[in-house]
Amino acid sequence: MDSFDMSRITDADFEALCRDLFGEILGVTFEIFARGKDQGVDLRYITPSNETWIVQCKHWDQTKRSNLVNYMKRHERPKVDLLSPDRYILATSVDLNPKAKSDLFDALSPHIGTTGDIWGAREIEAELRQREHIVRRHIRLWLNSTAVLNAMLTNSIVTRSRMLLEDTKTTLLTYVPNLSLSRAAEILDSEHVCVIAGAPGVGKTTLAQVIAAAHVGDGYELIEISEDVEEAFAAWRDGDAQIFYYDDFLGATALDDKLRKNEDIRLTSLMRQIKKDPTKRLVLTSREYILAQAEQRYEVLAREDFNLLTCVLDLTDYQLETRAQLLYNHVYFAPVSDLAKAAFADPLIHLPLLNHPNFNPRLISIALTLAAGRMAAEDVPTQVLNTLNRPEQLWRHIVENQLNAAQVAVIEALFSLPTANRESLRIAWRALQSYRGIQQRDDELRRALQILDGTLIRIDDSPFGARISFANPSIRDFMVEYLTERPDSLLELLQSISYHEQVEVLWASVPCLRDAGAVPGEVRTVLEESLPGYWLSRPLNGTLTEAYPRRLLASIEIAEAISSEELSAQIAHALKYEVYDLVHETADLDVVVAIAERVRHSGHELLSDLEVDFAGAITERIMGSLVDWDAARQARRIAESLDLDLDANDVDRIDRAIKEGAIQLVERWHAGDSSLALRDDLTEVLEIADVQYEESPADRDDFPSWLNPAQAMQNFIHLAGEHSVYWNRDVGPERSDADANRAVARIFAGLAAFATTEEQDEEPKEPRG
């Protein structure tokens, strides 16, 4: 092991490294504190005799020694004076000569007892060369060592591909070890061959490059395969430790790009030879759907057990703390201003990114690169968030260039379904293909699902059946744009529907359908002619009694949006003799009220004529169901929204039911019903109940022993107050456990140091660490 480039690790890496290194040298365990405004403490140890030892870590890049001395004298000495530790150690990534050490000793005396407690880059590296186990524990330090990078540089094959070297060096700047690394390493150790598969941007190439670099550090020669397998056979040397790296071995854009004549046979031959040879390793990467295509198309590949060799990357490998470290590293080394980096220290900035459903290392890297030099510092975090919000371009390339017609039809059919299982998707897919004049068997669908699973779609099997959904929320967003740009495909979907729910989904999801001026005549005709025929069809989920009123409501909304007199007339005809039954038989009264609202404001005469029928039936239903607080409050809300003509007696009945319901809720709390803690209307309940309870003995027989009445009432009031605040605040993303949150806060604290201004003359910015 030669030397280390400290500029290629972050301040966080440097502090963690110092903790392990000085802990071993001194035989103690140091505490590590949050970075940023550390008040002079990075690492601390309290001895059994209650002495305090402090290690201050200063990670500065490319700075003069005099700058460090001046900074420590002006800024750190006052902090150390306040702390007055029994032992103070300074560790820095700056290379120190004897004069610099002497100047630092004078600046920090009497807290530093000897210049031996001042550690510069050379001393730290010398100790690390004797402690390889510590270096390997800090994988990014090890992989960025000159020994590893020089071994890659001098490799004959890699030298012909400088791009791989540069890519790997960039990768090693930001990589964070996660669960996928250990999985891939286990496969490679046991099988000698590992196929790394996953969706675009999830980190396949990154993981492969890290594994390759790690093996180079262990003495392996790295052989990059860029064109075909013949390159591996040409570079093969019996007895030599070699690792072969084949990125996108089945093609980056389509299967046919790479597998030329007999390439499948040569590839499997290489895999079998490497499996038997203890000196050889093979790492391949592929997008999951392309790997599935290859197994289906090529019999030779199908006979290989790829499941045993495949490490599938998924975003679930990136737990909260891993995401935090990834984002931190990308920001730390990003080509953006220091003020832009400092902005990410704010939890209001980094937490939405860490908890974003589209969190993706590639997207973050692309966003930061695009932001460099093009926007104000305060706009950079917004650029990253916007990229995560709209990553559709990744999916566009796959759908438009890498899928066949049957596979695209699966994506289109899935988009039109609110929920899908294998049977509902099969019915919708076959109907769409049939309308297009394409007769395909079910085995074609099975092949398409195998190819798409894990990349564009996710198939979750359970004892209750498989649930099929998009693998990432952004794919559905992309499909909105895709269909908007292709009105013919959208029209074909509408003309081939098998379920009324498909129309509801398309109507709600594709904005151009809701723009009356933009709806093509063909679409209007399809909606007018097809919708009524599906009102009484088999629902996708639930019963027809539940689905029918929802379908009528959707049809009324569509008729109004496209100004269809014909569709409105058909709806009015269907309702003419069914209003009473519809109101009283529909479990979800809100759906009925929504229909009544539409009827009441309809510009179509036949529909508006039904307003009186709805008002009478709804009044009868709500007045007959004043059984508790919730029903009474709902009755008042409905009466007000529909402007029902209630007489004074009905109004009084509703008011009394609300009052009695509130008192019942308070008494339930007194009886020990803690489920009320889930309600969001407790303040209103208290105001309307307007009851008082006097304190009673705690041993009262008719009251639960765990609480006396006065305490119960006080807790109820307190609970109401808490909920009043809680339910009206902006609730942020769901948090992980407290330990993970503390870890995230500690990780991002270091970015705040980027905001400090430059000192006068040549003094640098505050060191980050």
Written description of the protein model:
The chain is α/β, with parallel strands linked by helices and 769 residues long. The chain contains 40 helices and twelve strands. The strands form three sheets. A five-stranded mixed sheet has the order 1-2-3-4-5. Helix 2 (65-83) packs parallel to helix 3 (98-108) and helix 29 (521-534) packs parallel to helix 31. The longest helix is centred in the last third of the chain and has 23 residues, at 648-670. The relative contact order is 0.07. The model is unreliable at 156-161, 252-257, 693-710, 719-736 and 757-765 (pLDDT under 50).
* Computed CA radius of gyration, to the nearest angstrom: 34 Å
Percentage of residues assigned to helices: 55-70%
Across the major sheet, the strand order is: 1-2-3-4-5
Kindly, what is the distance between the CA atoms of the first and last residues, rounded to a whole number of angstroms?
26 Å
Low-confidence stretches: 156-161, 252-257, 693-710, 719-736, 757-765
Assign the structural class, choosing from mainly alpha, mainly beta, alpha/beta, alpha+beta, or little secondary structure.
alpha/beta
Biggest beta-sheet profile? 5 strands, mixed
Shape: flat
How confident is the prediction overall: mean pLDDT?
Answer: 80
Number of helices: 40
SS elements, strand count: 12
Share of residues in strands: 5-15%
